[in-house]
Please model this.
Amino acid sequence: MVRSVPKAADVVGVPFLPPARLSTAATRVRGALAGMTKRMAPPPVAILEGLFGLLDHRVLVALCDADVPDLLAGPMHLDDLARQAGADRERLERLLRAAAVNGWVRFDRRGRVRPTPFTRFLRRDHPGGWRAWVDFAGGPEITSAVARVSVAPGTDPFLAANGAPFFDWMSEHPDRWRTFDEAMSAGARMHALALLAALDWPVDSSICDVGGGTGQLLATMLDLLPQATGTVLDLPDVVARATQRERLTAQVGDMFDAVPAGFDTYLLVNVLHDWGDDDVATILSTLAAAAGPARIVVVDADHPKRPRDRIATGADVLMAALTGGGRERDGGALATLAAAAGLRLVDSTRLASGDWAHELRVTAPRAAHP
Ligand SMILES: C[S@@+](CC[C@H](N)C(=O)[O-])C[C@H]1O[C@@H](n2cnc3c(N)ncnc32)[C@H](O)[C@@H]1O
Model:
């Protein structure tokens, strides 16, 4: 069993991943303070602040497109920053002022622009790799899908905006799929540390990461479990660019058809939320057929009865934008779908990332009555 999780600075760019209880408490406090701030705002202000979120997104993307986080290694005069970024000075200043209100940069008393800890996370050389999320979320295929989110039943905004469902469209746009993979990898490395800290892992674990992308989660886990082996199962284009390292194999497969047997843990990290209930039932049935005595660990965002976490509600609305039926589910909804697939939910563990790891096992076949 892993007792400590070293090298968080190298893997995700923070000195350590806090224990799940601490990060949950911090999220609750932040949520309560944000709620208090919102309640203090006169309603017209709250309305405009909500609508201006659209502009925050654009400011962040535009500043990253101009490589401002990479150029802003220390305090800089606007003239120098504008020259190096090839930017119009006045436009740059306006966007930076909006960024400063969000804490993304700050202005000092001499009028210079300074990086904040947040700015550093957006640099291309930051080990966390979160810049890829800006590159992904700023793509026109994403913003056009988000612009079509509505309360109409049975819609797939991504399909309506781009002419094909998400993964089909990605296979026709390999550059954008690579950017998506990189964004997923940032979260995957963090999830590797969070899963190692939260669950028990035999030293010689054999792990199959279903829909595991380019294998960053497994690569990070295998670094810290030196006798473990892993297989990432994903679509052909993704497997073709999978991370190469010892003890990690990448296998082409379709989780709707078959998953290889013989592993002691199967992971489904941020996978089920891409799919509607019928598809999830099929995926879980495929897993149930392969798992035998193994555990199946499903990691998805928090979905509490009373919404309080902006990341969790944001992830849910993003699924509403990018998929035809994908959604965040709580343990109860997952347990119902799992039961129909011959699986039972045996445990749910909060992760330091704020997500939940739900452990499923194949329901023991009932003994026949004599
Ligand atoms: C949201 S990403 C999550 C990636 C990774 N688990 C993570 O958390 O970083 C979903 C993954 O499912 C993969 N996928 C989609 N359809 C699949 C299928 N039919 N069989 C296997 N993998 C699939 C995608 O290629 C993608 O890598």
Remarks:
- DSSP finds 18 helices and nine strands in the chain.
- Residues 167, 184, 187-188, 211-213, 233-235, 238, 253-256, 269-271, 274 surround S-adenosylmethionine (CB under 6 Å).
- The CA atoms of residues 117 and 291 lie 43 Å apart.
- The mean pLDDT is 93.
